[in-house]
Amino acid sequence: MLQINALGQHTLERHLSGAVLTNTINRIDDWRLEKKNEWNKAIQALSILEKSHIIKVAEDANSFTWPSLLATKYLEYKTDGNRTRYEDDINTRRSIVSHLVIGELVEGKGRFIPQIINGLWLMMEESTWVSPAHIVVQKSGIGLPDPLDDYIDLGAGRVAADLAMVYLLLGDELNQISPMITKKLKDVLQSRIINPYLARDDFWWMALQSNNMVNNWNIWINTNVLKVALLVEEDASRLKMIIQKLAHSADKFIDSYAEDGACEEGPSYWLHAGGELGQMLLWLEDVSDGKVTFKEEHKLFNIGNYILNSHIYRNRYINFADAEAIQVPYPAKIWAYGTLYNDDNLKAYASYLTTLKSPSMSLGTVQDFLMHASIYSELSNHRKDFIAPQFHFYESLGQATMRSLNKKGNLFLATIGSNNGVSHNHNDVGSYMLYLDSTPVLIDVGVGTYTKETFSRNRYTLWNMQSQWHNLPVINGIQQKDGRSYHAEDVEYITNNETAQYRVNVAKAYPKEAAVQSWMRTIKMHAGNNEIRVEEQYQLEEFKKPQSISFISKIKPQLLKDGFFLQVDNGKKVFINFERETVTFSLETKEIEDPRLIKVWGGMLYKMNVLIKSMELRNQVIYKIIAN
């Protein structure tokens, strides 16, 4: 998790003080009416094709039979560590309600209202909106939710924001059936979200107590609480307290970021971290009628721009930590930063991403749909030729990217420095990944299906979390160790028009048993001739076992006399060549059983172990990576 900076910058609190906040609260009723009209107008302006698709999805949902949410399924996380079976049921229920609500907003004939009421009633009758994997923080511990110990987690926040939007947009239609529906809606939002948010400071994600840590939970939940409060809360004094507390808490999230804006949780979690921050900023600017603006806060822009700098090609992204290698970030969250900072390149990137989504609009949640509908025309019609940097460096993470520009194929390489105590950490300090065009050549395996083990003390017994299954050395038979104290040193990135060079000392990422004083990895790319040169220069305290370097790929390596090559689907090859007779090779195969990993990499992975022959305490190994 991210460590909070000792000295706060008070970014949101500075912008939400005094008369600005008072005037914002005083105009809240007018704003709600404006928001309702704005959303309805945007929905009606959607294309006929989009509307037809939305209505067809709603018609399918209208005959849905609602699943029961069984206590025994909720308890499965406690009994066998499985969280997905209950979450599948709950997510299906959420999606069906969203499909029905969106269909009614588009069609407006009332034919989906009865089934919407069924879904809403079931959701309001649920014992909790908190995931079984998150209920562990309650005082009674893991198991069924304690009705006297209210908690707000990610799921509760998302559900509440959707229900608040239903309350605003369909409240009149629901009241025609029975006013008890909206009455219950408002009551449940108060009791499950607003009241506990105001009453408690001990939710860890709020970061309001000493030594709290903070990650995406902070801004994701705070953003959803903001939406609920702005759309539902009628007491001006309570609304003011919520916004003040929320600004103080969310500032802890902003403070935890370096000025360069790098997201240590990776691009997948950026959607729920920086991406949610952008939504919060946009809502605050909107509700204040432009009196609040963040255009001078360059750090916030850097947080937003991170997702573009982590893009490889089409739907491929840097996937250090628990990030997904294949994804299409939600375009509206990127467009938000383009709007906030009048950045045309971010808008072009967001517009480009719509070409990768089919259908283009997300119907999974009401708020995602409204987010897109509000900018549908602009997003669809904007230019799509964005510019990604050829070379980029995030000093705070030691994350460097370098791209070649060559007719034989474009090489892309990304590195990670940092430490092994980051949020969603893998033991991967100094590792790198390599792509040829859109094809992964040397990979970061990433995370499998989440289970109880994923976030437990047993996390690093999982093979894909271990450094030996990253593109890293195994030193004296020892792997890297987890914890913030196991870190990179001497990280350096130097670029010019033709070359980029990255250097990192990974020795301190290994425990003392590795007996290593220094292991300096230097990676240099020559963009013009599509060549990468890697030096592994090390100094040992003693020799225990031969040193080795792991190379992980979904492509089966083919051995050569002094190296190996990997052939991609289009016939191009990537050669990895060593100095003659300095190393030997052995190949391991890993059959993949986890469905999440199979979806990304297929059923088999390969690890080429390159064993260094030298027994000297000081040594250097050089190899070249060449695309041909």
Automatic annotation (TrEMBL):
Organism the protein comes from? Sphingobacterium anhuiense
Which compartments is it annotated to reside in? Cell envelope
Q: Name one Pfam family in it.
A: Hepar_II_III_C
Gene3D superfamilies the UniProt entry points to:
2.70.98.70, Chondroitin AC/alginate lyase (1.50.10.100)
Q: Name the InterPro entries on file.
A: Chondroitin_lyas (IPR008929), Hepar_II_III_C (IPR012480)
Principal localisation: other
Protein name per Swiss-Prot or TrEMBL: Heparinase II/III family protein
- Could you tell me which residue ranges the Heparinase II/III-like C-terminal domain spans? 395-540
Q: Which SUPFAM superfamilies match?
A: Chondroitin AC/alginate lyase
**Superkingdom of the source?**
Bacteria
